[in-house]
């Protein structure tokens, strides 16, 4: 299932998402598609309202008269999980899913893992919406669901070693960190950046939905014992490199 999710996310990005041009940085997804496929907190908290870019892409408006792009608001909860803004966005998410997803899937089986993954994505979007209910910034990407995978991993494989690339000014080295420490640092970073984003007048977090990551991670922590039925024989062994 982990491989299937990676294939689906990649296929959706490469062949289904309308693009303004493919590049390795920034948003290659067209602005119109961004507002149609992404989940917008304002639309979720104001049923019937639809948001889109207006004035030749210089402003955002929300109104009942605006088109929804043929995608119902409730469906964007799921389309947003499989949509990505650019190749770096897609690649980073799929790398984390590949590294941590297979062992979490081993603990529960493919069907349970899919349900866990989707519920994690819903929980991620729910917290982001609660924190910013009037936000008209589209939320998209698999990172919320993947954060749930990380939350589950930290409990069932806390002593597994994660080979991590560390930059020291212009030098770099590899060190093995316990998964618990690696993921704790990652979670603390998301929570800190999310809190800092709340002090930003625009409240956009620099384009990253940090509270979605927090929501997914907390869901993973809370739900993993309900889904996991076994542990891999590789418990505590080194993992793939993390960059």
CATH architecture: Up-down Bundle
Termini Cα gap? 23 Å
Mean pLDDT: 77
- Tell the overall outline: globular
Total domain count: 1
Description:
With 243 residues, the protein is mostly helical. It has a single domain, classed as Rhomboid-like fold (Up-down Bundle), CATH 1.20.1540. Helices cover 52% and strands 11% of the residues. The protein is built from 9 helices and 4 strands. The protein has helices at residues 2-16, 31-37, 41-45, 76-79, 87-108, 110-131, 143-156, 179-198, 210-227, and strands spanning 50-54, 59-63, 161-168, 171-178. The strands form 2 sheets. Strands 1-2 form a two-stranded antiparallel sheet. α1 runs antiparallel to α5. It is globular, with a radius of gyration of 18 Å.
Sum up the structure in keywords.
Rhomboid-like fold, mainly alpha, disordered C terminus, 243 residues, two-stranded antiparallel sheet
Topology of helices and strands:
Elements: H1 2-16, H2 31-37, H3 41-45, E1 50-54, E2 59-63, H4 76-79, H5 87-108, H6 110-131, H7 143-156, E3 161-168, E4 171-178, H8 179-198, H9 210-227
Antiparallel strand pairs: 1-2, 3-4
Task: Give a brief outline of the structure.
By secondary structure, this protein is mainly α.
